[in-house]
Design a protein that fits this description.
With 273 residues, the chain is an alpha+beta fold. Helix content is 25%, strand content 34%. Helix 1 (17-32) packs across helix 2 (34-42) and helix 3 (47-58) runs antiparallel to helix 4. The protein starts with a strand and ends with a strand.
C-alpha cells in the first residue's frame, strides 16, 4: 500500500476500483472529445475535473495519487471513516458505482428538470446526476425511446393544484445512464448483459448529440462471505479508432476487446458531447 501525506497525516487508500473505473472513462472522454475537454477545462476548479486534466497532461505520479486520495477522503466522509492502523489512516474506498457517480457529479448532473406551475406558482428544479432507463426487454433496443418518454415529455400534472404545468429539461455535457431490467426478467444483481457492438454509439436526445464513451461493469465476489467485495472495471469505446478497450486497475496494461464480446452486469453507460 502506498503511503501518502495528507495534511501532514500518513494515509493509505484501498479498494479504489470503483473510482478508477469512472476516471478511466472520463479520461478517454477528455481525450476523444474536444468539446467535452473544453467544458471540463472551464470547470477545472472542481477537484475531480482538475485530477482528470493532471492525469492527461502529466500521467500517474505521487501528486495525482494524493489528489485521488483527497477526493475520496471527502467523497467518502459520510459513508466510511478512515481507520488508524499504527499511525497510518487507512481509507477503504469500496462502494457502489451508483453511490460514487451521484457524489462526483451531483453539481454536474446528466440533466435537470425544471417544473413550473402558472396557477399555484409551484417552482421546482430536480437534478439527475444519473438517469434511469427502465428497459422493457433484456437488451438496449428501446433505451433511447424509454429515455425520451421518461424525461422529454414537457406537460405534467402539478402535485399541488393538479393542473398542467410546464416541464423544461436541461441536459448536461454527459449522460450517465443506469439500465434497469424489468422485474419479470431481473436477474441477480440486476445483471444487464449487453453485446458491445449492439450498444448505440450515438444518441440524439434532449436537443443534443451524445457519443458513447464507455460502460462501468461489476464483477461479483467469488464467495458469499460477509466481507467479500467485488470488482469494477470499465469498457471504453474509442471512436477515434473504432475500438473497445478494457481498463482494469488490477492489470498493468489496457486490453483490446472484440466488439462481439458480451459484457455481464453492465451497471452504467456513459455518453458525452
Amino acid at each position: 500500500m502506498e503511503i501518502l501525506l495528507i495534511d501532514g497525516q500518513p494515509y493509505s487508500v484501498t479498494n479504489t476500483c470503483t473510482f478508477d473505473s469512472i476516471v478511466h472513462i472520463i479520461c478517454t472522454s477528455y481525450i476523444d472529445s474536444s468539446s467535452y475537454s473544453t467544458w471540463m477545462s472551464l470547470n477545472n476548479h472542481y477537484s475531480f475535473f482538475a485530477l482528470i486534466e493532471k492525469l492527461i497532461r502529466g500521467g500517474i505520479n505521487t501528486q495525482t495519487y494524493r489528489k485521488r486520495a483527497n477526493i475520496l477522503k471527502n467523497v467518502m466522509a459520510d459513508y466510511k471513516i478512515p481507520k488508524n492502523f499504527g499511525g497510518i489512516m487507512v481509507l477503504d474506498a469500496s462502494c457502489t458505482a451508483h453511490y460514487l457517480l451521484k457524489k462526483l457529479f451531483q453539481n454536474y448532473p446528466s440533466l435537470q428538470e425544471q417544473k413550473k406551475c402558472g396557477k399555484c406558482n409551484y417552482d421546482e428544479t430536480i437534478s439527475h446526476p444519473i438517469i434511469n432507463a427502465h428497459l422493457p426487454t433484456e437488451n438496449l433496443n428501446f433505451m433511447l425511446d424509454i429515455l425520451k418518454s421518461s424525461y422529454e415529455e414537457n406537460k405534467v400534472i402539478c402535485t399541488k393544484c393538479k393542473q398542467t404545468l410546464t416541464k423544461t429539461v436541461i441536459a448536461g455535457e454527459h449522460l450517465i445512464i443506469e439500465p434497469i431490467q424489468p422485474m419479470s426478467i431481473k436477474k441477480f444483481n440486476n445483471d444487464v448483459s449487453v453485446k458491445l457492438n449492439e450498444i448505440p454509439i450515438v444518441l440524439h436526445i434532449f436537443g443534443k448529440i451524445y457519443f458513447l464513451r464507455g460502460l462501468i461493469c461489476f464483477i461479483a465476489p467469488p464467495s458469499m462471505l460477509k466481507d467479500a467485495i467485488g470488482h469494477y472495471v470499465s469498457f471504453n469505446w474509442r471512436d477515434t479508432d473504432n475500438n473497445w478497450e478494457r481498463y482494469d486497475d488490477l492489470l498493468n496494461s489496457v486490453r483490446n476487446v472484440r466488439p462481439s464480446t458480451v459484457i455481464h452486469n453492465c451497471q452504467f453507460i456513459i455518453y458525452t458531447l
